[in-house]
Every structure is written in structure tokens, then in C-alpha cells.
Design brief:
The protein is α/β, with parallel strands linked by helices. Among the domains are: about 40 residues; about 120 residues, Rhodanese-like domain (Oxidized Rhodanese, domain 1, 3-Layer(aba) Sandwich). It is about 40% helix and about 10% strand. The chain contains nine helices and eight strands. It has a six-stranded parallel β-sheet. A two-stranded antiparallel sheet has the order 4-8. Strand 6, helix 8 and strand 7 form a beta-alpha-beta unit. It is elongated.
């Protein structure tokens, strides 16, 4: 029986040793990773929240086709319009020679008050708010050929299929593609997409583009998942 106990102890001891070694390596590594994530400026959130987007209207994207009434025309047709060409007769005034004009000038200079300084608030910029667009809106934008589409997925996904003419900038490698976007005008309309649905790559890349200075960024919420089911322009490869 003593022999059996020795065999049992000798059998368990390697597993206990291995478990202890694993514990020695894994626990410090885990604590180190948690600490780094807490203090990192771009740390990964513990709970992933799906960002909600406002939908862009056709007026936001393409403007209004309605014919408005010009202000000038409205003024011309207003009743009782004042004819500004009429001159108002000037009244004649005489200056009493006995008045000391230098004294009057001095009093006038002292009586003048400087206009108060008014702090004009900076105009709020709403151009940086990202809005979502539909498949039909994305197709219309693509047809206009005046915008840039960016695929935020990995390169191996991009080469298998993407929206025709789109650039590929993987969301987690934006810093490697600064040279690709630095020459793009900041007012240029940019449409970012990924797989659609719960894919967050387009949101991450849009935030990077906005922080870089772009003010006209939209997210195609349907993404490649919806576009691939249509007969709209597609491409493969790089």
C-alpha cells in the first residue's frame, strides 16, 4: 500500500508542478495586461457598446431640389417699398463765431465712449457628426463620382470583394495609411463601410478620420454584407 501511495504521489507531482508553473506565468501576464489597458490612451473597453447613428437624409447628402423664393425678389414686390434714391434736403446751420470751437472739440472727445467688447461665440461645427446612409443612398453617391469610399476591413477580406473604386484602410492600421489620406481635401465627402450589422470597424475608422480633420464623413451601415447581395458595382483584388 505504501508503494501505491508513492506511485500516486509521483504521478500527481508533474501535473502539480506544471500547474504551478502555468500559474506563475499566466497570472502576472494577466495583471500586466489589465494594468496596461487601464492606463493606455487607446485601451480596449471592457464592455463593447454598439454605437447608434442618426440617419442622413437625402437633403443632407444631395441638397433640395425645391425652388425657393429669393429674398431680393420678395423685397422688390413688397408694398410701400422705400425709394432710397430720394435725397433728403439738408438744413442749413450757422456757426456762432463767438463759440470757442476748440473747447467744444475737447468736450466731444471726452464724451465719446468706446464700444463694449463683445465675445462672439465660436460657431458650432456640425459637419463632424457621423451619420449613417442606406444602400440606395450609397449607390447614388457612388454614381456621382465625387466622393471617396473606404473599406475598413482587413486586406484579405477586401481582395475577395469590395465596392468598386473603394480604398482599403484597415481600421486598426490607420496610422500606416496617413500617406493615403493626407492629400485628400478635408471637406471631401467620405463613405466608410465594413461588413455591416454589428461590425464596428467603420465606426473606429470614422473616428480616426474625424480626429484627423475630415468633416464630411458618413458610414454605410449596410456594409459589404448588403452591397454584395445587389447588382451594384463590385470589384476584387487590390
Amino acid at each position: 500500500m505504501f508503494t501505491n501511495n508513492l506511485l500516486t504521489m509521483s504521478t500527481r507531482s508533474p501535473f502539480r508542478k506544471a500547474l504551478k508553473e502555468v500559474r506563475t506565468v499566466v497570472v502576472p501576464a494577466f495583471l500586466l495586461a489589465v494594468g496596461f489597458n487601464l492606463f493606455a490612451s487607446n485601451g480596449v473597453p471592457w464592455i463593447r457598446t454598439v454605437q447608434q447613428l442618426d440617419s442622413a437624409s437625402d437633403v443632407d447628402l444631395f441638397g433640395s431640389n425645391d425652388t425657393g423664393v429669393f429674398v431680393e425678389q420678395a423685397i422688390d414686390t413688397m408694398p410701400g417699398k422705400i425709394d432710397t434714391t430720394d435725397t433728403i434736403p439738408e438744413e442749413e446751420y450757422s456757426v456762432d463765431q463767438d463759440v470757442d470751437t476748440s473747447e467744444l472739440k475737447s468736450d466731444a472727445e471726452h464724451s465719446e465712449e468706446k464700444p463694449p467688447v463683445v465675445d462672439v461665440p465660436e460657431e458650432e461645427d456640425h459637419g463632424s457628426d457621423v451619420k449613417g446612409i442606406t444602400t440606395e443612398q450609397a449607390k447614388k453617391i457612388l454614381d456621382q463620382e465625387n466622393s471617396i469610399f473606404i473599406d475598413a476591413r482587413r486586406s484579405d477580406q477586401f481582395v475577395k470583394g469590395h465596392i468598386s473604386g473603394a480604398l482599403n484602410i484597415y481600421a486598426y492600421e490607420f496610422e500606416n495609411h496617413i500617406g493615403d489620406v493626407i492629400g485628400i481635401p478635408k471637406e471631401k465627402r467620405i463613405v466608410v463601410y465594413c461588413d455591416g450589422g454589428e461590425c464596428e470597424l467603420s465606426h473606429d475608422l470614422s473616428n480616426d478620420l474625424i480626429n484627423f480633420g475630415f468633416k464630411n464623413v458618413y458610414i454605410y451601415t449596410g456594409g459589404w454584407e448588403e452591397w454584395s447581395t445587389t447588382d451594384y458595382p463590385k470589384a476584387t483584388g487590390e
